[in-house]
Amino acid sequence: MKYLHSMLRIRDVDESLHFFCKLLGLLETRRKESPEGRFTLIFLATAPGEPEVELTYNWDVPDSYGNARNFGHLAYEVDDIHEICHRLQAGGVTILRPPRDGRMAFVKSPDGISIELLQKGPALAPAEPWASMPNTGSW
């Protein structure tokens, strides 16, 4: 067996691509439009050939999919957890669980998907503003 991708339903293509590509740094690897099925599939990865996240946009999407997603979170290893949290926060993303320990953080996508960020290698030294920042929500 080979892991292929995880699928997330999204409400807004532009808002989701801003979060996943511009702020988080993923690359769009391919896209499929289905006028007959009335959906768009957008595949993202950290690099070409790496495992993907499939964003599914249903053209007749409701305002909300509700909380019945039965999905935990996506996790990404990052080179500098402090830098990416600064970039996400500057982009308007709330840091739900800041990287106080220099090792792990949680943020949420525009559609409420929990994203876990894990520091590559050993934890970084605690740094402000994260070291004293409280959790701001559930992840």
Question: What's the arrangement of secondary structure elements?
Answer:
Blueprint: E1 5-10, H1 13-23, E2 27-34, E3 39-45, E4 52-58, E5 73-78, H2 81-90, E6 95-97, E7 104-108, E8 114-119
Parallel strand pairs: 1-4, 5-8
Antiparallel strand pairs: 2-3, 3-4, 6-7, 7-8
What is the compact description of this entry?
The protein has 139 residues and is of the alpha/beta class. The chain contains 2 helices and 8 strands.
CATH topology of the largest domain: 2,3-Dihydroxybiphenyl 1,2-Dioxygenase, domain 1
How is the biggest beta sheet arranged?
A: 4 strands, mixed
**Strand line-up in the sheet with most strands:** 1-4-3-2
CATH superfamily of the largest domain: 2,3-Dihydroxybiphenyl 1,2-Dioxygenase, domain 1
What is the residue-averaged pLDDT? 89
Helix content: 10-25%
Question: Which percent range describes the beta-strand content?
Answer: 25-35%
- CATH first level of the largest domain: which class? Alpha Beta
The SSE order reads EHEEEEHEEE
Q: How many runs of DSSP E, i.e. beta strands?
A: 8
